[in-house]
Amino acid sequence: MSPENRLKEDYPWTQSPLIACAPMRLIALAPLAVEVSKAGGLGFIGAGNDVSMLEPELQKAQQLFAAAEHPLPDTLPIGVGVLNWGADLDATLALLRTYRPAALWLFAARKLSDLQAWTQGARDATAGATKVWIQVGSVADAVAVTLLCAPDVLVVQGQDAGGHGLERGAGIVSLVPEVHDALLAALGPEGEAEGKMPVLLAAGGISEGRGVAAALALGAAGVVMGTRYLASPEAEISRGYRDEVVRASDGGQTTVRSGVYDKLRGTIDWPPGYGGRGVINRSYHDAIGGMDHEENVRLYNEAMKSGDKGWGVEGRLTTYAGTGVGLVKGVKGAKEITQEVREDAKRVLKSLGSRL
Ligand SMILES: Cc1cc2nc3c(=O)[nH]c(=O)nc-3n(C[C@H](O)[C@H](O)[C@H](O)COP(=O)(O)O)c2cc1C
């Protein structure tokens, strides 16, 4: 079965190419996830490392679908995402049993082998109804995780991605095709025939239809976007953060992946090798310039009190965003973003076909 048909079978409300919204921790909540899925994409609720916030969000999602009279398939047509280095397995499985979300997204385990219990647990909890998505950032991790867990979907995260990812990594232009070829080599042709080949989605730096079209050419069946959805009213962020995402451009120069923002915010439990990409601001310059860490934290905490003014190039509050931030030109509803990006991608692909 083609990856596109597998997606259609597993998530029957979705349209091709699949556009998914990343489970951005405490930013992608029920309103964003539901709007994306209502538009034929797949939205995720981002629980991060603490799943205690999930149950009310899942209940809200149920209510939002009911209010929209959206036909519910066998599962709740959204996913939930966790950061495996901190999330509680048993609590998550109990929620999967009760709410049956269509997908569980796993990321950043301390050891890849930890993901086996999560994958098996999710499959047992819902008799396979909840599909397992795993985000990886290297060819080696893609192969290892596929052999260990046989995920339904592998999200291949390139270096351009906003938020956390591997400090050392490649962009999707080389990463996605190399992952594809390495998986084929590892699984063999029988692997593909037996359905062991996960569906590949590309993430990192994709903010509009041209990026989606490129991702499909690289071997992905769809994409995951985070940064683009930050500029939607449904994203749970302050106006100052959203304004900064819309303002920033030239993301290769104006964003950086580092541990500076984690240290300032006290989110220091990430496994080694991960860093968060965000817009370069005063806090970052001061940290790199040698400012005493305690003083930088004090100024960060001061800035928290100033509200929306705390963001910006001369601000101190963190704007996690990817290099694709310059392609985000304004605020649009999550439904409109999903439909527009998908339709633009189709238009680009058609026009390329007619040019050859
Ligand atoms: C603000 C923000 C928060 C994020 N939080 C998470 C998270 O909690 N869990 C996760 O797996 N990925 C998280 N990501 C990374 C996404 O999964 C994805 O790889 C990324 O957004 C794709 O790149 P893009 O931002 O260029 O679209 C986050 C990304 C952003 C921008």
TrEMBL record:
CDD domains listed in its UniProt record: NPD_like (cd04730)
Record key words, sorted: Flavoprotein, FMN, Oxidoreductase
Keyword Oxidoreductase applies: yes
InterPro entries according to UniProt: Aldolase_TIM (IPR013785), NMO (IPR004136)
SUPFAM superfamilies named among the record's database cross-references: Inosine monophosphate dehydrogenase (IMPDH)
Name assigned to this protein: Nitronate monooxygenase domain-containing protein
